[in-house]
Amino acid sequence: MTCIVGITDGRIVTIGGDSAGSDGWHVAVRSDSKVFQVGPYLMGFTTSYRMGQLLRYSLTVGEPGTWDVDRFMATTFIDAVRECLSVGGYARNDNGQEQGGQFLVGIHGRLYVVGDDYQVGHTISGYAAVGSGYLVALGSLHSTATSPASSHQRAEMALEAAADLTEGVRPPFTVIQSE
Given a cut of 90, is residue 97 above it in pLDDT? Predict the structure, then answer.
């Protein structure tokens, strides 16, 4: 139960998230943010606060030192994430398939979606969303793609729409941008 949105113009990445924590029966507004920066990486997570805590405080991975950022993300970055989640006791094994959780990553002007199975997606639309409010947020991001609103404003509008129309998405919202 959450909504994380990401926007990129190819230079600047914006990631925003809500503050809901839910177990399916109860929703609590939490003060620990689902959106943060670790070194050069902007991240926003769904799935589990434990996963987010490990990504935020335990993940150790260098910056892409190659022109092939997609390759770096799918290999070196994901290898570091898998190790971080395994050592932290979070990674799950479902019938022999290792699983983590969903999160967005921004690096070098690019926006990536990391799936439960550690696949790395790089959208061409310039925006993405994950969590229970993702469909509403994607609709908002699509409808504002050519608007004069800033990416920060677009992220907030998408999160507001998700909070209004999706159970389990709550303000306050945190929105961060790369430099």
Answer: no
Identity at 156, one-letter amino acid code: E
Total domains in the fold of the chain: 1
Q: What is the CATH number of the domain that holds 114?
A: 3.60.20.10
Q: What are phi and psi of 83, to 5 degrees?
A: -65, -45
pLDDT at 23 over 90: no
Number of neighbouring beta carbons within 10 Å of residue 120: 18
Residue 10 backbone zone (phi > 0: left; psi -120 to 50: alpha; other: beta): left
Mean pLDDT of the chain: 94
